[in-house]
């Protein structure tokens, strides 16, 4: 719709009073504003007036529209009084569902590096790792089917796939607005709530549906607490999920409870992320020893 307001009269003089003309103009302008808002698809996910649950559940789609970004990950695991942190950094292409992270495992008690950094490639339905597992040649990749993992690779790789972390928000429940917060110098709005994993799996994109379905089996029906920070454009700047599960021990030993806090920081949006998956000949076909 085009509205012309050039101030010229194209017809006979209008006998309406000034007050009445002002009222008509106000109504017309209100209609134009409503039309523009309707054409734009409603409020943005980051707008302050948006319903908290709507803002959070829209965040995954907002990432896909943005294209790509850089990412930093931190996964803190606590069990039996022991706490370790695994960190990663890399890039992600949300439209293709592809990511690349360089993951650093914890140091030993003496402070020396215990493991070489692991290069991880994240793809729909698959996790590729280099420098993972004893006996794997340095030039070979290990490939895991994420749908075959008990946690759907939310924890296994030492970093939650950024797109999977975002798609968990599709199952957000009991969402509340906490307040404004600064994340790496960017003003954001902080929301918290709980994730219904089954609902998230049903609403996930095709690339993550099976993996999140596996996570439902691994973590059970207990809701997953989360905190997410959205900027003015509705983009996720920081997201934390808190997972809990019982780790299977050797025969004769009781299961051990493990608590995991997985945090992802996203920045540098719009940058292209060129990621190439390994050829079949470069994938290790043997058995990987446990570390």
What characteristics describe this protein?
eleven-stranded antiparallel β-sheet, globular, single chain, 291 residues, 22% helix, alpha+beta
Strand order of the largest sheet: 6-5-4-3-2-1-11-10-9-8-7
Largest sheet: 11 strands, antiparallel
Helix content: 10-25%
Supply Rg: 25 Å
Mean pLDDT: 81
Low-confidence stretches: 1-46
User: CA-to-CA gap between the ends?
Assistant: 64 Å
Shape: globular
Structural class: alpha+beta
Strand content: 25-35%
| Strand segment tally | 11
Q: Count every helix, treating DSSP H or I runs of 4 or more residues as helices.
A: 5
H/E topology pattern: HHEEEEEEHEEHHEEE
In short:
22% of the residues lie in helices and 34% in strands. The chain is of the alpha+beta class and 291 residues long. The chain has an eleven-stranded antiparallel beta sheet.
Please provide a written account of the structure.
The protein is α+β, with helices and mostly antiparallel strands. Helices cover 22% and strands 34% of the residues. It has five helices and eleven strands. It has helices spanning 18-39, 52-66, 162-167, 197-203, 206-219, and strands spanning 68-79, 82-93, 98-104, 118-123, 126-130, 141-145, 172-183, 186-195, 224-230, 236-247, 256-267. Strands 6-5-4-3-2-1-11-10-9-8-7 form an eleven-stranded antiparallel sheet. A hairpin with a 2-residue loop joins strand 7 and strand 8. Helix 4 packs antiparallel against helix 5. The longest helix has 22 residues, at 18-39. The radius of gyration is 25 Å and the shape is globular. The N and C termini lie far apart (64 Å). The relative contact order is 0.18.
């Amino acid at each position: 719709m085009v509205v012309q307001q050039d101030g010229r009269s194209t017809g006979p003089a209008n006998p309406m009073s000034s007050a009445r003309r002002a009222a008509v103009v106000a109504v017309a302008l209100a209609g134009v504003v409503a039309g523009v808002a309707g054409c734009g698809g409603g409020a943005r996910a980051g707008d302050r007036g948006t319903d908290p649950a709507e803002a959070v559940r829209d965040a995954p789609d907002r990432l896909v529209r943005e294209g790509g970004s850089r990412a930093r990950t931190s996964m803190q695991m606590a069990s039996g009084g022991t706490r370790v942190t695994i960190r990663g950094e890399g890039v992600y292409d949300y439209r293709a569902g592809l990511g690349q992270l360089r993951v650093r495992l914890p140091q030993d008690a003496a402070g020396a590096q215990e493991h070489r950094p692991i290069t991880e490639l994240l793809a729909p339905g698959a996790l590729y790792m280099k420098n993972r597992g004893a006996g794997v040649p340095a030039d070979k990749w290990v490939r895991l089917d994420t749908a075959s993992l008990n946690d759907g690779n939310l924890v296994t790789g030492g970093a939650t796939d950024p797109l999977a972390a975002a798609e968990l928000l599709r199952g957000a429940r009991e969402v509340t607005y906490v307040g404004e917060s600064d994340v790496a110098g960017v003003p954001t709005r902080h929301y918290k709530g709980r994730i219904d994993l089954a609902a998230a799996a049903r609403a996930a994109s095709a690339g993550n549906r099976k993996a999140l379905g596996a996570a439902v089996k691994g973590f059970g029906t207990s809701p997953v607490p989360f905190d997410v920070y959205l900027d003015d454009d509705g983009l996720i700047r920081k997201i934390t999920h808190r997972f809990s599960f019982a780790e299977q021990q050797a025969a004769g030993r009781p299961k051990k409870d493990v608590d995991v806090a997985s945090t992802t920081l996203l920045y540098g949006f719009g940058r292209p992320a060129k990621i190439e998956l390994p050829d079949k000949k470069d994938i290790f076909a043997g058995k990987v020893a446990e570390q």
